[in-house]
Amino acid sequence: MTDSQDTNRSESESGPGSESETEPKTDPTPKPDTEPEPHPDGGVDESKPLESASAGVNEQFENIRKTRRQRAIGWVVLTASIAFVTIQGLVATEFFSDRTRFTWSHFADRMGDYFPVTTNEIPGLDAGIPFLDIGSYWEFIMSNELIYDPEVGRLIFQFPPYLGDYYAFFFEELGMFTVFGEAGTTLAMGVVGTILGFPLALLFSVLASERVTPFPINLIFRAVMSFIRSIPAIVWALIFVALVGLGAAAATLAIALNTIGNLGRLFVEELEELEQGPIEAMRTTGASKPQVVFFGMLSQVRTSFIAWTLYILEINVRSAVTVGVIGAGGLGAVVATQESRLMFGNMMATLFVIFVLVFVVELFSQRLRARLRSDQEKQSIRELITGFPNRMADSLLR
Amino acid sequence: MSKIVVDNLRKTYGDTVALDNISFEVPAGEFVIILGVSGSGKSTLLRCMSALTEPTAGQVLIDGEPMTSTKPEVAMIFQQHNIIGDMSAYSNALSGGINRSSFLESVLQLQDNDEKQQALEALDTVGLLEEAEQKSRRMSGGQQQRVGIARALTQEPEVLLADEPVASLDPGSAQDVMGYLNRAADERDLTTFISLHQVNIARKYGQRFIGLHDGEKVFDGYREDLTLDVIDEIYGDIDTEGMFVSHGENESNRGSTDNQTSPNRGATL
């Protein structure tokens, strides 16, 4: 019984719409053949026609069996071809080459470096409980100012608070990002890159849309965005080193440029799926072309544009780590330095910081996007924070 | 106040003839209803009149001027209302007068107070003054359509075209919307063209009727000429029984809401 249900379900998932009409006929529960109103089902021997069914039912039953068999053959062929392609690919990527040796022992040794272990001495006993040396991670994180710069931070974290220092923090030190040390640099690279890239991404995507620019000319803008995308941010950063020198500025420019390519592409996709209606409506009001673009087109996609921009922000923060690896500052540069010094424990500590940073940014962006997309009344920020324990408990108990 | 002349209007899509040499003249201020089944060319006719679609041959003259491109003097209301869901009812109404303001003015809503007063008055005309600040996406279908009407009114048109404005509304909202359209046309002396397929609604509000069948004009006349035979001709082979309840409009409207869908159903078959 469960079998026949399963197969029915898989059929309705993968089958085209036309078959859904016939599906209910195969659905009913199995019944003894002696029943006056028999229903075809998976329990009956499939090679035989249904004895007590009418010709029409039997014909449809036969049809369904045929399509099912064809689909099964299709799956086998597909699986075989994927396996075939995978083997070819593994050869091409030198998995079977003599130069590739899997040395698990060496790998395990190295992992030991990544995760330094210390033992907790139990007083009075010789033995101790080994555990991950979080202390050494923390020491590195603090001493290298990965997440907190005390020079800047002391301006706001002091007792009693001094208003002049708050002013200095925001307007003289401009410390909103720098207070978070290296993590702040990485975050700033992603945020500023997104902000700088956004207006140009918007401009290029609108100009690349066929509704705004006639057909051959709009391809120019698409091509420019393709070109930008085809070169990874890390390579763009190497190119910008010639302009501003090796550092976070080059990385930020690279991320901004990449944003034009990536975000612009997403915007173009979104603009393709516009509804014609509001555009026509704005045309009949006698609006000028920029007004038609703004009111007829952009107003339709405003929410999704904001959502996509937040998504690109996530990607840009991750890409800020990558670009940093060439020495362009932030957490990426710390990873590269520690790796070259073979200080794998320190490297792992930095990776944890990166994980937390990326996770926080993604959490922020996803919550914001969910809020933008939902049609309900927006929660206030205060409610969002104070109501959190309740909602958390709700979703845990669900 | 505009006199409208449609002169030998023809529109073909490949081999399909959507409009077959349609001609008529409408003096200023008339409330005209265009009747016909789906695919009879109602929408094409209205789209040609608003210059959203370019006719294959013939022309539309408004006050003697040919309609070659969309104009502020000719406003259009759509079946799917086509208002901007992300904006409030007020902002939508305000966007009707967009042709009178510059790009930045319209984007930042810096229009002068006259414009804003006009938008609010248009909302008042359609009975939505209270809901002015509501996001239009959250409104009901009938309300959204009324926002569309308010936008068209803010445009200060002389001619109002409405393409099946009530086709996707329930009977109650349909009556509402038609009532507001009628009132607006009356108050502002608009020459109005509304395409409909509900004969009973058409009869209640229409002054003049133009019947289309397969892209041809099969009827053009005033209320007293709209007989059962005429309806039969417009709707062709479709069973028109019950679609048409003669005279006694108020009664018929109350009693025939069930029948409203029948021409529609017949048309799509």
From TrEMBL, chain A:
* Coiled coil, from the record: none
Primary residence: membrane
Basic and acidic residues bias (residue ranges): 1-12, 22-49
Q: Where is this region: Disordered?
A: 1-62
Task: Please name the GO terms that the record assigns under molecular function.
Answer: ABC-type phosphonate transporter activity
Query: Which key words are in the record?
Result: Cell membrane, Membrane, Transmembrane, Transmembrane helix, Transport
Might you report a single GO cellular component term?
plasma membrane
Q: Where is the ABC transmembrane type-1 domain?
A: 183-365
Task: Cite the NCBIfam families for this sequence.
Answer: PhnE (TIGR01097)
| Record's protein name | Phosphonate ABC transporter permease
Record organism: Natrialba hulunbeirensis JCM 10989
From TrEMBL, chain B:
Which segments constitute the ABC transporter domain?
4-239
Q: Which UniProt keywords apply?
A: ATP-binding, Cell membrane, Membrane, Nucleotide-binding, Translocase, Transport
Q: Which domain of life is it from?
A: Archaea
Pfam families in the record, alphabetically? ABC_tran
**Which SMART domains does the record match to this protein?**
AAA (SM00382)
Polar residues compositional bias: what residue ranges?
A: 253-269
Instruction: Tell me the leader sequence span.
Output: none
Q: Which CDD domains match?
A: ABC_PhnC_transporter (cd03256)
Question: One GO molecular function term?
Answer: ATP binding
Where is it found, in Gene Ontology cellular component terms? Answer: membrane
Please give the residue ranges the record annotates as the region Disordered.
244-269
Q: What is the name attached to this protein's record?
A: ABC transporter
